[in-house]
Amino acid sequence: MGTKALRGRENWQTKSGEKALVAENEFHGAFLKEFKNSNFQIRSKPKEFADIYRSVKLKKEVLDEIYSPKEGYGAHGIRPDYAIDNLKTKKTLYVEVKRQDGWVEGKPPKAGRGNAHERSCKYFTPGLQKILREHGKMGENILPFWVVFLGDIARDPKRVREVTTWYDGCADHFFFWRDVSNEKLLMDHFNNKLRKFLE
User: Fold this and answer.
1) What is the number of structural domains in the chain?
2) Per-residue pLDDT tens over the stretch 19-44
3) What is the largest CA-CA distance in the chain?
4) For every residue of 61-127, which 3-state class applies, written as one string?
5) Which of 2, 102, 104, 188 is most buried by a 10 A CB count?
6) Which of 178, 172, 167, 164 is nearest to 191 (CA)?
7) Cα–Cα–Cα angle for 97, 101, 178, nearest 5°?
8) Apex CA 22: angle with CA 17 and CA 48, to 5°?
9) What is the pTM of this model?
10) What is the pLDDT of residues 118-157, one digit of tens each?
11) Which pLDDT does position 25 carry in this prediction?
């Protein structure tokens, strides 16, 4: 595709980013109401992991084989969408909110393209779990994260099956918020499945 055609093409990333921001705001607003006058708080875009990769020590033989810039490396880490803190126990659960289009009624299967759900799987890696557990003061056998999926992805027959398979045995740590007008569904999941890890 030439540059002229590309310029005229709809920018789906911009639209997707705008929809994701609306979704995150709905999630955030629901928890602000829930936590009012309690020991809990929700923080948007926690910064404690913004540079975790930059500080990784590599062996000399690895450093000899890769590009090692002397300056201008920049920040290199992760920034979860939210952190839920218990101010009394000092425990923290990290949250990703993934909004993605999907294959639903009236749309072709290709409407389910996108990899937001795949990117959530980084939280299953041993190294990130160790870092999040230590910082969030979570126990050794507790997953220190929660992923909330919303938008069409929460009803896409392919993506729902993928996520359900990937999170097998860890169903408490993901939630398909299919009806975002119903905050009670979201709060019930948090209060019944995850709140206990923060107490």
Assistant:
1) 1
2) 545 556 789 999 999 999 999 999 99
3) 58
4) HHHCCCCCCCCCCCCCCCCCCEEEEECCCCEEEEEEEEECCCCCCCCCHHHHCCCHHHHHHHHHCHH
5) 102
6) 172
7) 60
8) 75
9) 0.86
10) 999 999 999 999 999 999 999 888 999 999 999 999 999 9
11) 78
Residue bearing tokens 């979570």:
138
**Identity of the amino acid at 140:** E
Residue 25 resides in a domain: yes
CA angle 26, 185, 132 (to 5 degrees): 70
Tell me the pLDDT tens digit for each residue of 150-192.
Answer: 999 999 999 999 999 999 999 999 999 999 999 999 999 999 9
Report the run of H or E that residue 185 belongs to, with start and end: helix 183-189
Residue 61 belongs to a domain: no
Instruction: Tell me whether residue 75 is in a domain.
Output: no
